[in-house]
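The following record pairs a protein chain with its ligand, glutamic acid.
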Amino acid sequence: MSEIKTRFAPSPTGRMHVGNLRTALYSYLVAKHAGGKFMLRIEDTDQERYVEGAVDIINRTLADTGLVYDEGPDKDGGCGPYVQSERVKAGIYMKYAKELIDKGEAYYCFCTKERLESLKQNINGKDIVMYDKHCLHLSREEIEANLAAGMPYVIRQNVPNEGTTRFTDEIYGEIEVPNSELDDMILIKSDGYPTYNFANVVDDHLMGITHVVRGNEYLSSSPKYNRLYQAFGWDIPTYIHCPLITDEEHHKLSKRSGHSSFEDLLDQGFVSKAIVNYVALLGWSPEEDREIYSLEELVKVFDYHRINKSPAVFDLQKLKWMNGQYLAAMDPDIFYQMAEPWLKQYVTGNYDLHKIAKMVQTRIEIFPDMEAETDFFDHLPAFDESLYTNKKWKVTPEKAWNVLTEILPRFSAVSDADFCNDELYTVIKDYAAEKNVKAGFVIWPVRIAVSGKQITPGGATELMEVLGKNESLSRISEAIKNLTAIVK
Ligand code: GLU
């Protein structure tokens, strides 16, 4: 068999939808698993949906996720141009459309909007135009005269009314459709641009695509594409249609969910490696009972036969969990680099953000979780006496007052230069030994005094190291003052 070649063929219409990212990923994996080639083609023939800057988003997303293409607009592999609007200018689609006209497989259609409107039928609540082949019956002279008069036209595919068209999809199996259900779809629009329906066939053939991986919204049109391949006498590619992605309410994942694009997810504090890993599992399952896979590992194990037919549900909680796994396993320097812009929003005091990042790295799922973990650095929460009661350590507000009052001078005696976790912890241990109490009994009130919280990232003395001597002592003094008011 010849080398496998797949393509990702996005339309530059805005952010990268999770479904498109999955198509790109599966396309990449199908090719790379078989040692084949992965190509990028920009499908910008729908001028109305074109969004400025969207091509940059596509490029950035592919670079960010590691889906490196072997051929594309900036990497010529001999099948260019790789941008459809440039292919229009080169006359490629018109040439093939005319070839179909010559073969009787396509025809000029001069029908006006009004006439097409009048053909509208309401089928299952939807307005559908099934073209009635009116222009198929124009004589050669009429056609020539219309063209010569500069009348606007489209070129339509000529699908016979009788018979059926079959097609095979690797995921959905054998599909047979009566031709009467297949509309004479437009191949070339009145602006001279091809429709997706035509361009995908011409380009996939000319660019040597062996496996077409795309969303299942194209499944129902695929019989029409097959007819085009057959009309040209071209090999039909292997089709791999991927299942729908829904939100938790089982609706198609859309902008409304707030997390339907790759960029949304980055904005919300997810990292691209976790997104890629999660997206791989949206409709595909590995053989092993395992969920964490790097892109390289996916390349090794990805077998497209294991793609599912049934819709995949996008579970944000699951993605959060996965993201947490990635953050926790990250090299601390890389974690810091990524966390810093977020952390700077949450901690504005003059504290060592490296140390704070280290404390929170394994405690968060997404970067914004750092806000709640670190809020006490900038703002000590209001005094709450109830926090000082702890059954396990047998702490009461009275005992807390006592511990803090006795230990404050000992902390105070530690020099600025030595005011670090180890040194402070030794102070606590020595004090506990001297008083014959457990270290936890001492640590409990100290943590609450310096953070106003029972649970914090890092130990009490780690927090003190970050807060520094002045701030730590002032927070402990403040706690003593507040406790005095209650216990005395
Ligand atoms: N341009 C189409 C889209 O973005 C591509 C579909 C395909 O992969 O063929 O939906």
